[in-house]
Design goal:
Strand 1 (27-30), helix 2 and strand 2 form a beta-alpha-beta unit. The protein is built from 4 helices and 4 strands, in the order αβαβαβαβ. Helices cover 47% and strands 14% of the residues. A 4-stranded parallel sheet has the order 3-2-1-4, with helices on both faces.
Length: 98
């Protein structure tokens, strides 16, 4: 299977399971550290979602702004705001912070 075919299969699976790409839903990240950045980078690199469909929050304003500036995603001031707006919520925090 070629890389293009794999990418297409991923896109179709995400559309089927979560509606990604059809109704422009939001994917929210609580925590924007290394784990979240790896997932965000992978989704954007594979063109599975648009930058405008990803939002996130972090403990510090500096972290949120750095991730926003690097990836072009939306940021919110609180975890609650991310949870309320996102259709899919990813908890990308270490267990001791959860």
């Amino acid at each position: 299977m070629t890389a293009v075919m794999k990418n297409r299969c991923l896109q179709m699976s995400l559309r089927f399971l979560f509606g990604i790409g059809e109704d422009k839903m939001k994917i929210g990240f609580i925590g924007l550290g290394n784990m979240a950045k790896a997932m965000i980078g992978g989704m954007l690199q594979k063109e599975l979602v648009d930058r405008c469909d990803i939002i996130g929050s972090a403990r510090t304003r500096e972290t949120m702004e750095n991730v926003r500036d690097f990836y072009g995603i939306g940021i919110r001031d609180s975890n609650t705001a991310v949870a309320e707006e996102a259709k899919i919520l990813i908890l990308a925090v270490k267990p001791q912070f959860f």
